[in-house]
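Re: beginner question about structure tokens

> Can someone show what the tokenized structure looks like for a real chain? I only ever see the sequence side.

Sure, here's an example I had lying around. Input first:
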Amino acid sequence: MALKLDFIRTFPGGPRIEAAFQMALDRFSITVLFGASGCGKTTILRSLAGLDRPDVGFISADEAIWFDAQSGCFVPPHLRRVGYVFQEAALFPHLDVRGNITFGIRRWSAQERHARLRELIELMGLEGLEHRRPADLSGGEKQRVAMARALAPRPRLLLLDEPFASLDRPAAEQLRHGLRHVLQAMNMPAILVTHNRDEALSLGDHLLLMREGSIRQGGPPAEVFAKPDSREAATLLGFGTIVRTRVDGRMEGLLRLAMGGVELVAPDPGGHFQEAYACIRGEGVSLERHASGTATQRNRLPGRVTALHSLGPLTRIHVDCGFPLEALVTTWACEDLALAVGESVHAVIKATAVVVIPIEV
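And the corresponding structure tokens:
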């Protein structure tokens, strides 16, 4: 039992969206469509839901054809058994929580409807809110009601279009932590659209990286985030340092990479190339006021702090090491080191923290 799609959607004077992948429908899993705004993620979701119609290709679920451009087949949204949760909760303002959740199952018998309502109220943590209307709910509560409403008819697939984007950080984290448990309890497959790295890593079982209208990489989220296959992908996946280097030597599975008078040691991805991008995530850089450390930390670079940006519990620090380097450290560590613009530091980067992307000539 699988969802399969391979289609193209072209907007006049606009982007061309290409989508081709498949996923199981008979068990719980979360597939993440990850990418910057405008890359086509929502278009794919809307096409799956029947809210948009591709120009070329097909969409099938199990043996049922939902869309086929060649034959003209197009199954309307209400016959696809797909739940859809939008960025905004879009609840019916005149209905209370009970009415919103049961709206899609109002034709069920009273007994079935009540049993399903109680199940979802408990699963979504909505006890005590049953008689409230949307105006009396918090943002997180509204979104939990929206999810319960989408799940009520027992869809075969749940589509989530940036469901946490409109929430403050505490509400988003609380809802995110509970969502995977709920879907797992219901054995419900889902597709999540997001451009948030934390959401992708904490929720996804499989990640599809989108850029400029098409899927460029796929795999387990941690693997995709750790191994971008292009400079553009590395930027999208949050690598704060991306610098062009030349290969200065190879030894025991490692590369010596040179840029100006600075040298980095990094794992050798294999292949024949003389130039590459060295990509370093800010979390992979530690800072010291004086040179010290163990031999396993192969890259130890003197530098000078050029800028600091507070991110609450974390601080992003820019260091000139002969090339611009970004470090992401705890604010406590920043204060403990008494770091300030102009201060001298040593950046320590393990070889394994450097991702090498060959530049093909």
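Each token stands for a local structural state, so reading them left to right follows the chain. Residues 169-185 form the longest helix (17 residues).
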